[in-house]
Fold these 2 entries.
Entry 1:
Amino acid sequence: MKNNLKVCRAIGSLTQEELAAKVGVTRQAIIAIERGKYIPSTVLAMKIARVFGKTVEEVFTLEETD
Amino acid sequence: MDKLFLLPHWCRKIGMVVFPISLVLEIACLLEIGFNLFQFEISLNDIREWLGLSAFVCGDSLENMGHFTPCNDLLPTVVDILFIVGSCLLGFSKLSDEDEYFSKIRMQALVLAVYMYAAVLIIGEILCWGTAFLYFMRCCIFAPVLFFLIFFYARVAAVRKGAKDEK
């Protein structure tokens, strides 16, 4: 699963730390999501999307291999 | 997170004290270092016999055959219990910043530990037999939890270091 979390964060002028605090996870989790090393749970994905005022599909997209 | 039945964070602090002490004592017990220093007046076997547990669990025939030789030393049992409690407290207490990412790391470490233990058992089955195999199994009894602790804390340290570097 791909994501454009880094782009969304840059547009929203949010640091990893700030985003992590808003969605209630650690900065390590945000880093892992941005690097594509960790696929967040549905709840976390929805929380992240809500922070940016977007739908989950706008932030996270399925790859063909998924 | 609650579904993982993790202990509260404060339990980890107790684990951090109990685990290293019990690990050192456990190694000392396995190598029989200072065994005679910890002899107790009341033997554990007396208690077991009094409760009728030995016969119930092991059966009289096995005890008569000498598979369960009487031991007047409480230390190994106490150390084993301390080690089990300490490792559980250390391994299964929430981290100060526990979240779903660390839960995933925890699960991965647990799976890896089981695989590693299976590999060790296979090696033991091939290389050891007879009494040596029993001694080998005695040494390996806590291997899964040890492997888990090593994998989990190594991965957590690596993730935290990576996050620090990115700053």
Entry 2:
Amino acid sequence: MTVEARVLSAFREALDIEGDVDPKELVYREYKKWTSMAHMTLIAILEQDFDAMLETDEIIAMSSFDKAVETMKKYDAN
Amino acid sequence: MPTDLDLTGKVAVVTGASRGIGAAIVRTLAERGATVVAVARSVNDETFGLDNVVPIAGSLEDPAFAKELVRTVFSRFKRLDVLVNNAGVMRPGSMGATAEADIVDVLRLNLESAVLLTEAAVRLMVRGGGGSIVNMSSIMGRVGAPGQFAYAASKAGLIGATLAAAKELAPKGVRVNAIAPGFIATEMTDALSEEARAEAIAKIGMGRPGTSQDVADAVLFLASDLSRYVTGQVIGVDGGFIL
């Protein structure tokens, strides 16, 4: 499974995304379901899946799908 | 037979663990089966001599240490179920005549380090589906005391942090509570004069100082599933102490 697919799966689960919404278009706090609480859930799912602990700066900067993929690629080797 | 007080399989971090209340908390949680990471400036394998107590030496006054500590817990255990922010220091002094360094030290260790460690630890709890955070406040944080300006401020700050965190983390299954000990017989209170000790004991309804175990048992309750529906509370362990 690619990093993108794993991140996509995490987004769908954490943000409870409906079928017609493209996660790649979502922006943190602009999409109504991407709240700070959902963000915490998203981080937890990603950290669990990638067996990693993200840096606080990375969590704060993770404001879009693309940024999430970019960040998680660093942890793919784990 | 497993009970609601059984902590087998759970991982706990206790700060200020080398003596007094912290050491009692470590032993109490360990006796109930938890793996306890005991954090203090000076702690080693001989401090507790228990297989399920993992000593980690370090200074929480260094903000980087909190992150490092949580990363270590993650690396070794992949989970964190209980965090007890117990580290603290008391530097009594009259207002207007207390060294700035003492005020800064008290606020940094008692409040800032607990906030930073909680911030770092909470994600590990959330990913595990929940947990329990116990902040060691003080009766002085609730009602104040002369000569304890900075200490009372730091302990009141911990209560504010407890209440805010409890509200934010309840949906994630993380409970956050505080304990407010009264006059507990520890090395910290042993430093008081005989006169001051007698004066304090006279104000305790139960007529005796508390013990570290009295406090540790309250922590056990909050760490365990017995308190599964308790969050955002400040529990006094003070024997009816009136300040």
